[in-house]
Amino acid sequence: MAFQFPIRIYWEDTDAGGIVFYANYLKFFERARTEWLRSLGIEQQALKSEVGGMFVVSETHLKYHRPAQLDNLLTVTAELAEAGRATLTLRQQALLEIPGLAPQLLAEGTIRIGWVNSHTLKPGRIPATILKALQP
């Protein structure tokens, strides 16, 4: 089951047309990924300072289905689609929550993140302990 993270839409998230600015979905996805990792006991600041590595986004593919608007409540999901030695591919969705109705898909995509040395920014292998924590 995918990790779920609630996000409320505020004025700062919308554009001149009153809908969520498309690039903000990337921010929402980032928050959900960070909280997903945290829920697994993986703190990104600790990875950088104690392990000497960090995840960086290397690729995104998003599809927008419907716009979110001011005051909407979204559920943003994150789940592991594929784990390699140096990269992870995650599936993510932004769903509109409407009381009494099934969630409506607003945006979905895949995000590929790679492991790099936090000092040199050179790619490296994801530590085995992290890969183990990510397995269901």
Trace the largest sheet across and list its strands.
Answer: 1-3-4-5-2
Q: What class do helices, strands and sheet pairing give?
A: alpha+beta
Largest sheet: 5 strands, antiparallel
C-alpha termini separation = 9 Å
Strand content: 35-45%
Low-confidence stretches: none
Which term fits the overall shape? elongated
| Mean pLDDT over all positions | 96
Q: Count of DSSP E strands?
A: 5
Helix-residue proportion: 10-25%
Number of DSSP helices?
3
Order of helices and strands: EHHEEEEH
What gyration radius follows from the Cα positions, in whole Å?
16 Å
How would you describe this structure to a colleague?
The protein is an alpha+beta fold. Helices cover 23% and strands 40% of the residues. The protein has 3 helices and 5 strands. It has helices at 24-39, 44-51, 128-134, and strands at residues 3-8, 53-64, 73-83, 87-97, 104-117. The chain has a 5-stranded antiparallel sheet with strand order 1-3-4-5-2, covered by helices on one side. The longest helix has 16 residues, at 24-39. It is elongated and about 40 Å long. The model has no long low-confidence stretch (mean pLDDT 96).
SSE order and pairing:
Blueprint: E1 3-8, H1 24-39, H2 44-51, E2 53-64, E3 73-83, E4 87-97, E5 104-117, H3 128-134
Antiparallel strand pairs: 1-3, 2-5, 3-4, 4-5
Which key features would you list for this structure?
single chain, 136 residues, alpha+beta, five-stranded antiparallel β-sheet, 3 helices, 5 strands, 23% helix, 40% strand, elongated
Summarize the structure.
The chain is an alpha+beta fold and 136 residues long.
